[in-house]
Amino acid sequence: MPNWPGFKREICISNSNDKILEKQLQLIEINLGSYYNKYNKTIYKNNKRWQSNKWQEMCSENLFHVSYWNVESNELVCFCSIMPCEESIVEGEMSNIIYLYEIHVAPEWRNQKFGKSILNALKEKLCPKAHLSGIELTVFSSNERAINFYRNNGFTLSYDSPSDKRRRTRTGIRIIRPTYYIMCYVLR
Ligand SMILES: CC(C)(COP(=O)(O)OP(=O)(O)OC[C@H]1O[C@@H](n2cnc3c(N)ncnc32)[C@H](O)[C@@H]1OP(=O)(O)O)[C@@H](O)C(=O)NCCC(=O)NCCS
Question: What InterPro entries does the record point to (predicted)?
Answer without folding.
Answer: Acyl_CoA_acyltransferase, GNAT_dom, NAA40
